[in-house]
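Handout, page 2. Input:
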Amino acid sequence: MNVKQIAKGLVALGVAMLSGSGAVADASREAIAERLAPVGSVCLQGQDCGTQAAQAEAETNAESGDGELDGASLYSSVGCAACHDSGAAGAPGLGDSEAWASRIEQGTEALYQSVYEGKGAMPARGGSSASDEEIQAVVDYMVAEAE
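Output:
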């Protein structure tokens, strides 16, 4: 009798393993496909590769309810946060009153020019394609955070 029970148990175990292996194989295939998926795509000049939609979305996100640009949202979306949150390459940190004091004394126009032209390790426009108005909104936001 023990031999029959052991045989039944082995058969049940085999069936369970075979039925479950298909799901595991599918999950593995999906995981492999996800890891091998391209991280980007090539867009040639003259093609609409979603840039118009992305630009329209960015403009919508950058505006607050009263039609003014939102410096806080732009700070993150334009890329300023990448260096100013971490202090990379000597960038003054957001809200660091001491680091910003001498810069603020020069006036906002001088700060705008620093961003337009680049300063130190920061490239012109902070490496972004932000408009003058967007840059001014971000600078104004950063100055307000430091005061």
